[in-house]
Specification:
Elements (H helix, E strand, L loop, with lengths): L2 H15 L3 E7 H4 L8 E7 L4 H8 L4 E5 L3 E5 L8 E6 L5 H9 L2 H13 L14 H7 L14
Parallel strand pairs: 2-5
Antiparallel strand pairs: 1-2, 3-4, 4-5
Helix pairs in contact: 4-5
Amino acid sequence: MRLTEAQKLIDLVLANLAPYIVKSTAVGSVRRKQEEIGDLDILIEIKEQDVERVKYACRRFATLHSGGTRKLRLGNLFGTKAEMDIWLTYPPRNFYALQAIFTGPDHVTIKLRENLERKGVKRPHAKLPVRSEEEYFKLAGLDYLPPEDRHTL
């Protein structure tokens, strides 16, 4: 699907989940501003006690194919054939670390993880106390790259 169509669907999903969202962002190819989008991915920070409420809300506009406490897989978004993964996070997991990882692309995610693991950071996607994606890159010893430029790393 085209980037503009993907962004419209993401905006609709976020609007429907707004009562539960603390922070949110598109991730993956949408955030990297690729012209053609294969799948839709968003990251939302919620309060842990709202997981079931978010699942229930999703059922009003999509088919819930799978729904754990960290990831929801949706289909038939608003009557379309589009599918989406919603990555759920809540403290103490770090939104910005997950934002960097889920934005990708894969070779960037691998480089971030490898660099942090070499520094002795276990599970570098989980509970790092960073206040921005830029800080996460810095911790990994990498210069920050905006999402649309990450293919160059």
